[in-house]
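Check the record.
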Amino acid sequence: MAQRKSRSTRARPKSEGGGTATERYVLTLYVTGATAGSLRAIANIKAICEQHLKGRYKLEVVDVYRRPERLRKDQVVAVPTLIRKLPIPLRLLVGDLSRTEQVLQGLGLVARTS
């Protein structure tokens, strides 16, 4: 009798739009010091995270004046830039993050409208 080979099951990436209630988000926000645009971006992403991701996100804020080497590491060419590292796929959002609906779409928290 022939032996069956077992198949490993891999977790498939979830489709964008909604995520799950237990999904963790790892975010990095690149800013330039304490400029008005940087402070606005920090306030906007913190408000969005607290409202939509409370208790299931990690946000790192990187000041490119203090840590310029991080720009090359994450290939950031404009600031402020928000990088969603998890859940995959990686996403980049550029700007002060004031357009909440677009930020939610970019983070994959709501389905994109056609």
In short: The longest helix spans residues 36-52. Residues 25-107 form a domain with the Glutaredoxin fold (CATH 3.40.30.10). The chain has a mean pLDDT of 85.
